[in-house]
Amino acid sequence: MAASGYSSIRAAEWSYSKEWLLSADDEGVVKYWQPNLNNVQTLQAHSMPVRDLAFAPSDRKFVTASDDATLKIFDFTTTNCDLTLSGHNWDAKSVDWHPSKGLIVSGSKDHSVKLWDPRVGRNLTTLHGHKNALTATVFSRLRDQLLATAARDNLARIFDLRMMRDVCVLRGHEKGITAIAWHPIHSSLIATGGDDGALHSYLLDEPNPPVGVAVSELSPYNVSDPSTVPAQSIHPAHRITYAHESSIWSLDWHPLGHILASGSNDHFTRFWSRARPGEINCFKDQFHLGEEGAEAQGTWDRKFGRKQMREQEEQEEQDEAEDLGDQNAGAKLLASIPGLPNPSASGAPTSLIPGMGTIAPPPLSMPNFGASSGDAPAIDPGRLASIIASTTQAPSLQQFQPQQTQQSFVPPLLPTGLLSNIDLSQFNLPSGFQLPAGFPPPPLPIQNDTQGGLPGLSGLNGTPPPSGMVGTDASGIRKRGPLPSQQESLAAEQRRGNYRHAK
């Protein structure tokens, strides 16, 4: 999406039909993209960065959340702003549109979660519980009464819209939670990513308390009066402590639910899947135990990891250099004989075939005039005066034509730089006729030696075949020249920047 400009993209969302993609950037611009990433529309939605956006289930409208503390609802077709939702006291960081109900949720830097009516833009209620800025608010697509929120207070909360309160608190992150994603098939499975690069998976129906800690909290669903009990604490069912080296900004599941994609500020996007049956070493790799722990377990080699990273960096540098070279390339190369210098290259011969000089085209001459320089012939002033004095009628143009004693023969023009075998005896030329300047001489007689002709061929004058090309000796046996030196080839590759480091 290089066409998006120089501003950072902060949010992207596919339509429910998967026919359109919306992106939002730091300049408050929303762009429409087709599946082939063709940018067909640009909309200045806000004057400040847009942090999140979401489609309505019908794809007819979409909503944006911006650092200007407002939400805006736009008509997708006309790009008109239908409503502006105001009510947050600080930056609006997240937004989502309910998949089946007319409901919008937003999270803000003011620690609040608000529910909105998209028809009239009215704030329905405000949910409290977080002690820091909100980073994500996502409705469940399977259990549409549940809402997941994440904040920088290291907690994620699950709200039940029927009770308008939080029923679960997801704990375990050591830093703020920056991304959250519901599983598309298992309604109780949810994944979170944090500022510390950790990736956690939770099961809402399994508290999974730490070892030695008893479960002392009851779920609000298991008591007669839910308002009298606090939210139940849920701990991770699985942790990937070192999933990334920096903050995880986005999470998304494959529609079939077997792969989870994570995007991080460490410039990596990783894809995670469940372990195969009987596979246990995956829980001892550098992502679960860290580099030092995995090296102690023998499941990761620090030197090998550094080698892989170095090779990857070298490959990226080489790819970038090649891309820059392609972009800075000049005009397309002209057609030429493979293996021979291109006429357009600097220092290359101007002739298409080596050993043959370039033949300049003969000078142009006007028909029916003897002058070969191309200039208009002069008219005799005395003849002009006699014509005017001898007649009272207007002179015709034919009278001013210069007199020709004999029309000179003008041979046909030949393409520049090519040798043509023309039998001049077929033309009825006068005796002592001289070819005009620039006309190619008659072809030379065929030679049987190997010192002339085209490279690798005999019979036409030219240059001998270069070393390394196939040629013929006096007996007519084809022979191949010596192969190029491997040492010279290695030196040439090293000059290009390859094979400089031992791997």
UniProtKB/TrEMBL annotation:
Which subcellular locations apply to this protein? Nucleus
The Gene Ontology biological process terms listed for this entry are: co-transcriptional mRNA 3'-end processing, cleavage and polyadenylation pathway
The segments carrying the WD repeats are 43-84, 85-126, 170-202, 241-273
Task: Please state the protein's primary subcellular location.
Answer: nucleus
Supply the SUPFAM superfamilies for this chain.
Answer: WD40 repeat-like (SSF50978)
A single GO cellular-component term on record: mRNA cleavage and polyadenylation specificity factor complex
Q: Which region ranges are annotated with the description Disordered?
A: 435-503
Tell me the InterPro entries matching this sequence: Pfs2-like, WD40/YVTN_repeat-like_dom_sf, WD40_repeat_dom_sf, WD40_rpt
- Mind telling me which SMART domains this protein's record contains? WD40
User: Mind telling me which Pfam families this protein's record contains?
Assistant: WD40 (PF00400)
Q: Does the keyword Protein biosynthesis apply?
A: no
Q: Which UniProt keywords apply?
A: mRNA processing, Nucleus, WD repeat
**What does this protein's UniProt record list under function?**
Required for 3'-end cleavage and polyadenylation of pre-mRNAs. Also involved in chromosome segregation where it has a role in chromosome attachment to the mitotic spindle.
Please give the PANTHER family that the UniProt record associates with this protein: PRE-MRNA 3' END PROCESSING PROTEIN WDR33, WD40 REPEAT PROTEIN
The name on file for this protein is Polyadenylation factor subunit 2
Source organism of this protein record:
Phaeomoniella chlamydospora
